[in-house]
C-alpha cells in the first residue's frame, strides 16, 4: 500500500490577491476611472450624454438604483481590490446621505482607501 503525503494549503495561499493600483492615485484620476465605470453602466440605459462631475449625485442626477450601486461596488473591487469596500462605505451613512451621495464623496473615499493601503 502506498501512502500519499497531503498537506493542507496555507491560509496565505488561499487569501485573495489585491488588485494592483497604479500610481498616482489622486482625485482627478479616480474621478476619470469611476466616470468610465458609470458611463459603461449608463450606456446600457442609453444615457451616454450625461456629464459626470464631483458634484453629480448617484440617485438624483444619474437615476441609479440599488442594483446599479451593487454593480458599481463590484467594478470598484475589481479595479482597486478589497481595500475599497463600497458596502462598508455606505453602511456608515444615514439614508438621506445615501440618497444624496455624490460621485465626489465616493472619489474621496477611494483615494483615502488606496492611499492607506499603500502606506501599509
Write up this protein.
The protein has 120 residues and is mainly α. 52% of the residues lie in helices and 0% in strands. It contains 6 helices and no strands. Helix 2 crosses helix 3 and helix 2 (27-43) packs across helix 6 (103-118). The longest helix is centred in the N-terminal third of the chain and has 17 residues, at 27-43. The radius of gyration is 18 Å and the shape is globular. Residues 2-17 have low confidence and may be disordered.
What keyword list fits this structure?
mainly alpha, 6 helices, globular, 120 residues, disordered N terminus
Secondary structure layout plus pairing:
Elements: H1 11-14, H2 27-43, H3 66-80, H4 86-91, H5 95-99, H6 103-118
Helix pairs in contact: 2-3, 2-6
Compose a concise summary of this entry:
This protein is an all-alpha fold and 120 residues long. Helices cover 52% and strands 0% of the residues. The longest helix has 17 residues, at 27-43.
| Outline type | globular
Q: What's the order of the H and E elements? A: HHHHHH
Helix count, DSSP H or I runs of 4 or more residues? 6
Main sheet summary:
none
